[in-house]
UniProtKB/TrEMBL annotation:
GO biological process, one term: DNA-mediated transformation
Protein name: DNA-protecting protein DprA
Family listed: Belongs to the DprA/Smf family.
Limits of the Smf/DprA SLOG domain: 53-132
Amino acid sequence: GDGRTSSLVRQIGAARTLQHSLVPKPGSDLAERLAEVDPVRQLEQAARCGIRFLVPGDPEWPATLDELDDVITDKGVGGTPPGLWVRGPMPLGELTTSVAVVGSRAASVYGVEVTRGLCDHLATVGVPVVSG
């Protein structure tokens, strides 16, 4: 993620950061993408699928993620994630174990199939699967 944005969220909160950061120049790519996004509708669709979105400061937010703010590269990448999509009824604070799935951005078709099967199995037997 963007380390600068991560630090700002930590200092002034997600809502104020969003208000300050999302004022794109008219005609920019960001302005066009934002015009197509309906966050309320997206959150409603997610909720119908048993998915919720957490931001730093939410009661369920894992405090250990805030420590990532100290891990920002010289290129400004890293920091606490701006949010987490969570699927399933269990509160994050009750989780004692999990498996992280990383490095999946450029996966092959076979890699995606194998990973999906593995993650489905883990979730079925009650192991939380985390993906960034």
